[in-house]
Amino acid sequence: MLRIRRFEEEGMRQYTGDNIPGWFHSSVGQEAAVVGACLALRDDDAMTGTHRSHGHPIGKGAHLDGLMAELMGKAGGICKGRGGSMHLADNSVGIISESAIVGGGIPLATGCAFSVKVRGVDQVILCFFGDGAVNQGTFHESLNMASLWKLPVIYLCENNGYAITTSVAQSHGQPDIALRAAGYGMPGVTVDGQDVSAVYEATAEAVTRARAGKGPTLVVANTYRFDEHNFGLVIRGEPYRPVEEVEAHKRDRDPILLYRTVLLEEGINEKSLRAIEDEAAEAVKQAVQFALASPMPRPETLPHYMFNSPLVGHSSSCAGLEREPVDVPSNAEKLASTVGTHVQMTYSEAIVQAQIEEMERDGSVVLMGEDVTVYGGTKLIERFRNRIWDTPISEGSFTGVGIGAAIYGLRPIVDLQYASFAYLASDQIINQASKLRYMTGGQINIPIVFRCCIYSTGSNAAQHADRPYPSFMNVPGLKIINPTSAADMKGLMKSAIRDGDPVLVFEENKLRPLIGDVPTDPEHTIPIGKADVKREGKDVTLIAIGAAIQPTMEAVDALAREGISVEVIDPRTLKPLDHEAFKTSVAKTGRLLVVEDAHRVCNVGSEIAAVMAEEASDLLKRPILRLSAPDIHVPFSPALEKDFYPTKDRIIAAVRRVV
Q1: How far apart are the C-alpha atoms of 196 and 118, rounded to whole Å?
Q2: How would residue 327 be classed by pLDDT, with cut points 50, 70 and 90?
Q3: Rounded to whole angstroms, what are the CA distances from 288 to 159, 412, 455?
Q4: Which long-range contacts (CB under 8 A, 24 or more apart) does 177-183 make?
Q5: Is a pLDDT exceeding 80 seen at residue 378?
Q6: Residue 316 reports pLDDT greater than 70
Q7: Catalytic residue among 54, 249, 464, 599, which?
Q8: Is 51 a catalytic residue?
Q9: Which pLDDT score is estimated for 457?
Q10: What counts of helices (H) and strands (E) characterise the chain?
């Protein structure tokens, strides 16, 4: 507790002296809640924290040098200066991540616990969050899943009474937070968060329960922060906390003074206590010296830690984590493996076959999502029932659970069903999956696949018919594929599952019945980032995105009869785009048309046109032309939907125009 207190006090001094940029959220006053809980863990257990979590890595045993350097944004920081004050992580002691998004870490901790259960080990996950997070949907959704699946996770609410300036009484319909556990069928325990022994005993009991396979516990530690929400925050007008209240806590409820009294009563002498105090002060002093001496990151290192290299197998860097093999049912059929042979299958069957082969090859691959045991394919259910998990309707949180599981040793395939539902999951995909590897300085890998099916036709209407991949293209740290044939779907899906980074797979529902030749070789993969020339030509380059490939090929056949030779390129991967393939084709034809079904503003064609204008303008004989859906929501009526997307006739007219 002293190490945390002195670290925080010195941090505030360094922040005032402009050595720490950004924000500084002091946890002075809350040390007992952190330390008591951490003492109940083993070294190989893991935990997640919040924006106010400088003390949590210290409570778990992290070295102070790298933590202080990280607060200063230095290259010697534990996250190489990528995370900073609100995003500390130290996987050497099991600190998976800390999230500045309120409640953002709760699904991740739940996912880590899910991984522990699937792998059959006896680790537990400790999840810290504040009272404000209890009002987030991720709290409720995650506790429900953890209870449903009896996951080994302890949810520890550091209830300091205020979410920024709003009190619990002002924001909670039921201010007794522990009572909420009853709604999810788990124990809820309230404990004095200023009493380190009481916190330890409550957490130890929850840890014992979790290791025994009895599931999660909600522990509410009533504590108090002595400083403002963030250090230096200026509150205008009347203070939101009475001055007497703050002073009374500092005087009567300081966890360090309280425990110091206990130690004296138990016979520890004053000299020993002073030695401990001196040791803590010296450790913090050395940490400051290390941090000040550490250089700033060099500008050329800016892109480092964005992506992990594609992996055949996955090993996590989390403390104490060794990937356990997951048994594959013995009655699983042998897959065909003769190199060079093909079978006829539909686009939809290719998706299932890719998952079968990868689940058979790698025991860490799991499938999760809503109704996947019904709609996921009977062959998958027959072979891998113990690795296919139906989730509640909680897109945001089961996505986060998948991300946590990926961090902690599994390779999840998260089926979001409709692509439009990716909006519901976007907080976890964007703020966690895409950013955590970078913000932790490469400490963690997130090998996860998000399946998103685009139901663009069939009168699904606007809330079920979007194709949101342009939105995700603007997010660094993600890879995006959009295959258009059965062979491409199988090969790219397998590559996505093997990849070491988050991959969004956008499937085209209208292409699902299409039949094609698919290699039977289980090692048939297609590199992410490589476009395919579907037809060679010399007059026009036509880049067709996703389902636009169907009317494009029909249009190209008709144009060929007119003597117009069109080269058709299918990007297959939307991020990263294969710029070289596009330039090679434009160098031959001198003309470029991009056709896609997404809305016109800021779509894939916009990016391709911008790149080609920058990199290949000298090769172009005519201006680039784009053909897409209008910037209007997808209609319900078949009469309106019929011509909403580019048609064969409109593509023919566009080619004639560019020629």
Answers
A1: 33
A2: very low
A3: 30, 40, 56
A4: 177/131, 177/134, 177/218, 177/220, 178/218, 178/220, 180/134, 180/140, 180/143, 180/218, 181/143, 181/217, 181/218
A5: no
A6: no
A7: 464
A8: no
A9: 82
A10: 24, 22
